[in-house]
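Local shape tokens

___
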Amino acid sequence: MQLTIIYPIIIILLFWVCKSDPAVRTLVNEKNVKDVLITLFVETDNRHWEKVKSCFADEVLFDMTSLAGGEPVRMTPQQIVDGWANGLKALQAIHHQVGNFKIEVSTNEANAFCYGIASHYLSNDSGKNTRTFIGSYDFHLILIDNIWKIDQFKFNSKYVTGNLNLEASE
């Protein structure tokens, strides 16, 4: 009989201790940051643009200069998604693979790094059906209403291989 009273109290105390432990909070925040980044890539592959937009803050410092030159630009999530949706529209398949995550979290901001490979597929008469981008990503995220959002996105190209004119090869 007394165990039924003590058990809920023990659970509440364990929850409170774990929630207030800085190491536990850091691990939870690192996991949540990683989840946002994985969602970004998986939902891009699935072309679920509303879910992709939800990964971003209202304004993003967007840097693809290692591929396209120029300067980083400030963009809205809608502008990013519109560009990706248009640029990827012709492809039959997109596949991102990310790993080697390094994440540093403070109270309300985080820096994240990961390796990334993006493969594009479009069957065409040339038989050269793929293009692959290999590089790494640098992200900065901020905590908005207890949800991590990307406010800086940078792709660091190492190399691109395959059919560089994939869409023109039809």
The domain at 2-169 is CATH 3.10.450.50 (Nuclear Transport Factor 2; Chain: A,). The longest helix spans residues 22-46.
